Amino acid sequence: MSSPEIRPAAEADLPTITEIYEHAVRYGTATFELIPPDLAEMTRRFHALVDGGFPYLVAVVDGNVIGYAYAGPYRPRPAYRFTVENSIYLKPAIHRRGIGLQLLQRLLRECEARGYRQMIAVIGDSANAGSIGVHTKCGFQMIGTHPNVGLKFGRWLDTVMMQLSLGKGATTVPTADQ
Ligand SMILES: CC(C)(COP(=O)(O)OP(=O)(O)OC[C@H]1O[C@@H](n2cnc3c(N)ncnc32)[C@H](O)[C@@H]1OP(=O)(O)O)[C@@H](O)C(=O)NCCC(=O)NCCS
């Protein structure tokens, strides 16, 4: 497989993104959604993020979207405005080939360029070695585990919280925000 191009997502990528996420919702525990959102809902979510100035990226090989990643608000209350939460999903057939890492590294750069100071990963399922592994490799710190907060496929699921400082992190306060 040739090396992927990482670029901003476009509306034309959304049918494939919707399929990738549908698989993750139906068969995986990384997301706690139970019903796959349709293309119209994924399009609404895409525009809400992009119009809000958040990065939304795809990994493309030979013209085909094989994965995507985005950052969005961690929480809606305004004091959280310098903190983002990330999401990354790949087609299952291409796991463990370095593509998640490339998407996350580019997402970190895009968030730093926009002035965000903290990124939080809320990882569904403490058995999600792939997600914990890729965040660890990017320097995220383990914050802790919320045990048994989800119920999917008849099983109680944990969430694992990991966090990385971006740019100047907490060493300065943005000048327009003192
Ligand atoms: C999580 C995910 C994005 C990781 O992407 P990936 O391309 O498979 O991971 P990479 O090949 O880039 O791995 C980078 C590093 O992460 C770690 N890692 C990745 N998968 C791992 C696994 N299954 N077990 C342990 N470590 C792992 C390794 O350190 C790896 O580096 P190495 O291969 O040189 O040892 C991908 O597996 C995925 O889409 N999973 C399903 C959805 C999901 O869990 N998304 C995250 C939501 S929070």
What does this structure look like?
The chain is of the alpha+beta class. It has four helices and seven strands. The protein has helices at residues 14-27, 39-51, 99-113, 129-137; strands at 5-8, 56-61, 64-73, 83-90, 118-124, 141-152, 155-165. The chain has a seven-stranded mixed beta sheet, with helices on both faces. α1 (14-27) packs across α2 (39-51). The longest helix has 15 residues, at 99-113.
Quickly describe the structure.
This protein has 178 residues and is an alpha+beta fold. The protein is built from four helices and seven strands. The chain is globular and about 45 Å long.
Task: Indicate the topology.
Elements: E1 5-8, H1 14-27, H2 39-51, E2 56-61, E3 64-73, E4 83-90, H3 99-113, E5 118-124, H4 129-137, E6 141-152, E7 155-165
Parallel strand pairs: 4-5
Antiparallel strand pairs: 1-2, 2-3, 3-4, 5-7, 6-7
Helix pairs in contact: 1-2
What bound compounds does this protein have?
Answer: coenzyme A
The tally of beta strands, per DSSP, is: 7
Largest sheet: 7 strands, mixed
* Overall average residue pLDDT: 97
Distance between the termini: 49 Å
- Tell me the radius of gyration: 16 Å
Spatial order of the strands in the main sheet?
Answer: 1-2-3-4-5-7-6
